[in-house]
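Full entry
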Amino acid sequence: MTINTTNPSRRSFIVGSAAIATGIAIGFDLDFMASANAAEGSGMTSMAPLSAPEIGVWVVVKPNDDVVVRVVRSEMGQGTITGLAQMVAEELQCDWKKVSYEYPSPSESLRRKQAWGSFSTGGSRGIRTSEQYVRKGGAAARMMLTQAAANQWGVPVSECAALNSVITHTPSGRKTTFGKVSVAASQLALPTDIPLKDPKDWTLIGKPMNRIDGVADKVTGRQIYAIDLTMPGMLVANIRQSPVFGGKVKSYDAAKAMSMKGIRKVVPVGDSAVAVVADTFWQAKTAMDKVDIVWDSGSNTKVSSASIRKMFEEGLNADDTFKHNSNGDTKAAIASASKVIQATYSYPFLNHATLEPMNATAKWTPERCEAWVPTQDGEASLAAVIAASGLPAEKCEVYKVNIGGGFGRRGAFQDYAVQAVTIAKQMPGTPIKLIWTREEDMTQGRYHPATMAKLTAAIDDKKNVTALNIRISGQSILAAVRPFILEANQGKDPAVFQGYDPQGEHGFGYSFDNLNVDHAMRNTHVPPGFWRGVNVNQNAIYIETFMDELAEAVGMDAVQFRLKHMQKYPRNMAVLKAAADGIGWTKPAAPGVHRGIAQIKAYGSYVAAACELSVKNGNEVKIHRIVAATDPSYVVNPAQIERQVAGSFVYGLSALFEEEITIENGAVVQKNFDTFNSIRLGQMPKVETILIQGGGSEWGGVGEPTIAVAAPAVLNAIYRATGKRYRDVPLKNSGIKLV
C-alpha cells in the first residue's frame, strides 16, 4: 500500500569539483564541514583497483559512461550501497546498468578534511542521513553534463535533456553521451541552485532494483570477508582476555605453547589479554589453550545476574531518577484512581553474535601502520589504529573490508582493531591477522543493556486511563561509550528512552492527561553496546504489552484503545490500521489461531506489526504469519525493505524466545550458539510487508525500527491463546518454545 508523498525539504550545502583527465568528478561537502576540493590529495585507496586515476568525492563519470558512486557507509547485507547508488542515479539520469561503487578510505577522508562526512553505519542512518547530499551530487552532475553538451552545440541548456546517460537537444534531435562531455563538464562553473526531482517523478527511487554489491559472490562463496584475507608472510593470532570484565593478567607461562608446531610468539596485549601468534589459526588456538594464565579478576567476581537484578529491582522504587517525558501530575492521578494497573518487566543482556567473529589484520613498521578492518565506522577504526600504532595520522591507513555481520558491534567498539595493531607492533613488518574464537566473541562482547521496567496506570470510574507512569531501571549505554552526552544532559542518558521521547525520531505515539517517564540509572561492570534496534526493543515490549493490558482493563478492543490515545499522531495511526487490516483484525481468526498487535516510532519511521499464532500443549508456539506496516517517509528500494523487515524479525524473535547473556562470578556464562540460540528457518513465520510513504522532511530508517514490534505483538497473541502474561525475556525461561 502506498500513500501519496510530499516533496522533501532541501537544505543548503557546499559544492566543489575539479577537472580530471579521464572524466568528471563531482564532490559535495555537508554544511557542517570545511570545504574540500575534489582535486586535493593523491587519490583514494580501496580494496578494489581504482576505477579512475583521479577521483572526486562523490560521483565519477568516465569516458565510457560508467558511473562510480563513492560510498562511505558500510555494507552489511542491508542494501545501503544499492540504495545510495539509486538516489545518485535517479538525479543523474544515468544508465543504471553502468553504475558501480567504491569505498573511499577513511585516511583519505581525513586528508580531505572529512569531505565524505560520517562513515558511521548504524542507527539506520545509511540512507536517511545521506539522502540530501547524495541526491544533490547526482543532480549537480547532470546539470553540468547537460550544460557542457549545450555549449558544444551552441544551444540554450533549457533545450537539452538527459536520460539514461544520453543528452538530447530536443529541437534538433542531436545526441551525445555523458562520457563524451565529461571532461568539458568538469571545467564548468558549479551550479549554485540545484533543484531535486519531485518524488512523483522518480523512476529509480521506489523501484526494487537489483543490488550492486556482489550478491552472486556471496551466494557462491567467492566473497572475501575480513576473516578470509590472506597476504604474503601473514601470520595468525588468537587471543584470550580476562573472563571477568575489568580483570587483568597477573602472570602467564608460555613454555608449553612455544614448544608446539608453528608457534611464532606469545605476547601480552595490554594488561588484560595474552595472544599466541602462529602460522595458522588452528595452531594459534590450540596453543592458546596451553598458555597458563593467572588472572587478577578483582572485585567483579562477586557480580551475578541475580545481584544485577536485585540492583535493578531497587531502582524501580528509587527516588534518584532522570525524568524525560512528563506532563500533568501522575502521582496525584494514580493516588485518586478508581483502579490502578501495574506490571513489571525485565529484559536481559544480549550478544550481537555476528556470524563472523571479531577479527582484523594489521601490519606495523616504525614508518607505517596499515590495518584491514571489517568495520561499521572506518573513521573510528582509523582513530583506533592511529592511537594504538603510536604513529602520526599521515602514516596510518585503514582499509574497509567486507563485514560478516555487524548489528552495532563493529561501530563504536574497535577493541579488536586495537588488539591487532598491538600484536603487530610486537612483530614489526609482519602482517598479523587476529581472529577471535566464537567463545571469545561471546564472552567479550559489548552487550545490549539489561533493564527492568515498572509501568503503572490510573483508571477512573468511567474507565478512562487518566495517568501512565513508566519507570525504567538499568544500564546506560552512553555512560560507558559516550559520557560527554550525559554531561550535556545533566547526567541523563537520552538513548534509554527510545520510543518514549516527547517528539522526534523516537517520539512517543500516545497521549495521556498525566504522563511520566523516568530512568533509575543502574550501571554494571558488563560493558554495554549498541545492539540492533537498541533500547526501542525492550521499550516497545514494555509499552505495547501494557497497552493491551489497559485495553482489557477498560473493556476495549486493543486496536481501538490504541487509536483512542493516538489521535494526535496520524502516522502512528496509519501504520497501526494498516497492520490491523492486513491481518484481518476485525474478522474472526481460524479456530485455534490468536492475534496480537503492536506499534511504535523508531529511527524516524512509524512501524506496526500484527501476528497470528497458535499454541499447543500450553507452551509450543507456532507463529503463522506477521504483517508489518512500515512508514519510513520515502521508499528507496521496496524489495530491500521487505528483506530488512523479515531479517529484523529473525533477530527480534530470536531474542524474545531464545537469547540471553547471564553472569556468574563476574563472567559471561554463554560460550557458543548451543547456549545462545537463534530461531531456525522452519520456525520463521511468513512475513507480509506493507509500505507506506508518508512524506515529510524526516526520512526514516529501515534496518532497525521493525525489530521492536514483532516481540510485543507475539506476546499479546500468546496471552490471548493461553491467558498468561509473560513479562520476562527470553520466553525459554518460562518454558515457552517456538516451533
